[in-house]
């Protein structure tokens, strides 16, 4: 019974910390202090350590000898890897989903695109963008594939928030509209091809570090 309770608490802690890391509220290389986190959640060290292991498995944290558990950093190579994986898996999901897409689903995806275009900040845009992708891919009915895509979208969101916490400008997503137009006309391969190129595009933005210097951040913007 105690083990089940620890697992439940560990799940909650890892979920909250993952969300903070993805949203950029905890910076790359920041130390995750076991005592502080245990106190915040009113938990023992056992579920906190399990939560850390789960974050490491997600690639969000790393255990560094003599430096403790820290938020994982990322570089352009990792951003490109996630973009390539998303391109491959999302185009596969779309090919399987296409025959099950109804006018109502496509209309909802179009509305998500309009909301993304009107988004005033990066978080609102990311939420609308993720909803668009989920709507057109979910009908594939392949749970394991969709779970992998969800994990990749979380990684994409982390890159995005890191690069565009400020300086976000409204934009029109022409790719989303081209994908929807192709799907409405039954041109599945064309839609899959546009989607594949769409998620492979990587944007860049200058980001000021806590020390006052500037670095270039990269992000998947699709």
UniProtKB/TrEMBL annotation:
Domain HTH gntR-type: 7-74
Keyword Transcription regulation in annotation: yes
Keywords attached to this entry: DNA-binding, Transcription, Transcription regulation
SUPFAM superfamilies to which the protein is assigned, alphabetical: GntR ligand-binding domain-like, Winged helix' DNA-binding domain
Domain of life the protein comes from: Bacteria
Keyword Phosphoprotein attributed: no
Pfam families: FCD, GntR
Protein name: GntR family transcriptional regulator
């Amino acid at each position: 019974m105690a083990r089940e309770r620890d697992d439940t608490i560990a799940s909650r802690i890892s979920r909250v910390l993952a969300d903070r890391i993805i949203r950029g509220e905890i910076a790359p290389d920041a130390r995750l202090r076991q005592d502080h986190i245990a106190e915040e959640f009113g938990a023992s060290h056992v579920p906190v350590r399990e939560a850390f292991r789960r974050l490491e498995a997600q690639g969000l944290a790393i255990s560094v000898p003599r430096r403790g558990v820290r938020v994982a950093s990322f570089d352009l190579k990792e951003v490109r890897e996630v973009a390539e994986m998303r391109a491959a898996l999302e185009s596969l999901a779309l090919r399987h989903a296409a025959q099950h897409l109804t006018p109502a689903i496509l209309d909802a995806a179009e509305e998500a695109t309009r909301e993304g275009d009107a988004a005033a900040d990066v978080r609102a845009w990311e939420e609308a963008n993720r909803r668009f992708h989920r709507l057109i891919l979910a009908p594939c009915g392949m749970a394991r594939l969709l779970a992998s895509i969800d994990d990749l979208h979380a990684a994409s969101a982390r890159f995005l928030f890191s690069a565009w916490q400020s300086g976000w400008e409204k934009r029109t997503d022409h790719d989303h509209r081209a994908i929807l137009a192709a799907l409405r006309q039954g041109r599945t391969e064309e839609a899959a091809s546009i989607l594949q190129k769409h998620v492979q595009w990587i944007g860049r933005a200058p980001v000021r570090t806590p020390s006052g210097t500037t670095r270039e951040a990269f992000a998947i913007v699709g």
